[in-house]
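Q: I'm teaching a short session on how sequence maps to structure, and I want students to see two examples side by side rather than one. Could you give me a first protein with its sequence written out and its structure tokens following it? Keep the formatting plain so it prints cleanly on a handout.
A: Of course. Example one:
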Amino acid sequence: MQYRKLIGWAFVGVALLSGPLFWNLMNGQPAPAPVAPIHGAPWQIDIKPSGSSRVFDVEIGSTRMAEIQARWKDGVRVAVVASSGELGALEAYVEQADAAGVMGRMIFSFDLEPTQLQAYKERATRSETVTGGARRFALAAADTEQAAMLPVAAIAFIPNSQLDPDMIYQRFGKPAMVQLEGQNLKHFLYPGKGLCVTLDAKGRELLQYVAPSNFDRLSAPLAQLPASS
């Protein structure tokens, strides 16, 4: 092991002496500043041995809502979002999130018992209609404090920039399956990453992340759709 370390340092020394650092030093010029690696980008998904994953520096199933609130502070809106006739879901919404230079909307979802979810809606301090006709119910202060201990169950990211199939293949690799929905939607499924990328010919693209061990959360709703190579 020690021999291998010495060999490694030797090659580092050769690289330094033959690279731009050596020539800058010889010419009396300062060495160029190192470029920081990209961290927290949408395509950087760290799979955990537990079957979970980490993306955007958030570990699905472990990171709690309180940590999301501490990170984005006043930029986080916590509410129950429900379409007409549906119970809805508890979400923490960030209007403009920076994912390693990729800007977009970020939505964190949290699992909650139906009775508790309904109680949150009934105690909401206010509600408002959002895009698509759904309603957003703002949590009461006591409920917000209680919900802060819930772990993130899923993440949705809507990038400001447009995506295309080539970009998806380049960043995420070849999907396990591609499914079509109607004339405008195409879903790229990555079970091993816990990821579904949806291209919308008439709208915004959507990236959805879950723990790989819980991928049926994304695939089950698409199970009846036709597959495409």
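Q: Perfect. Now a second example for contrast.
A: Example two:
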Amino acid sequence: MFESLSPTQRTIAFERTGKFVVRACPGSGKTYSVAARLARCYQRWPHRSQGIAAISFTNVAWHEIENYLLNDFGIRTPIAYPHFLGTIDSFIDRFIFLPFGHLIMGCTARPSLVGPPHGSWRGRNFYEAQFTNLTFDAQGTLVLRAKRAVDKNMWEEHRHDFLRAKKAIIRAGFATQDDAEFLAMRLLDKYPLIARPHAKRVRRNVRQINVC
């Protein structure tokens, strides 16, 4: 099943150990190489409670890897727990934000993701309606994701009203994907023990990098 690999791809899939980066241009076969390495590791994996995390930046990439696993390498998909194949966003949502987000959001139940790509959003007024167009930067400052969504003068004059609406909706248990990433970062800062079981469970990770 690995006969189609080039010598370089065979080195990536079979021989390299430890941390390493594959530098290659788009279209050169990196995704196929990642799928081959994942298939090889998966076939020989000896642990029942610890797994492999194959993480991509896009849905297209991990779906392509999954397709290669099934059709080229004979791996039944979706790959099961304790392994993970998906985007970095889905990893954050599944293992950090959704189970633990309530600890810093102020809500009492599991939070809900709204806005693209999770669903639509409608607020009771203009400020609430802009919830999915607003998020926080790394320092916690409220910023506009889509600057054209709000008139510049209105944004400057009513920033406090937008912030108040944003915080109230978060306390009610709702967040956008951008919010989830910001809140996950805050979660790990405040509760570092959250990361320990996942670090222990994931014994190996496979990532894809485009370098042109």
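Q: What should students look for in example two?
A: Point them to this: The chain has two domains: 7-88+203-207, 96-192. Also worth mentioning: The beta strands are 51-56, 84-87, 112-113, 134-136, 142-144, 174-175, 202-207.
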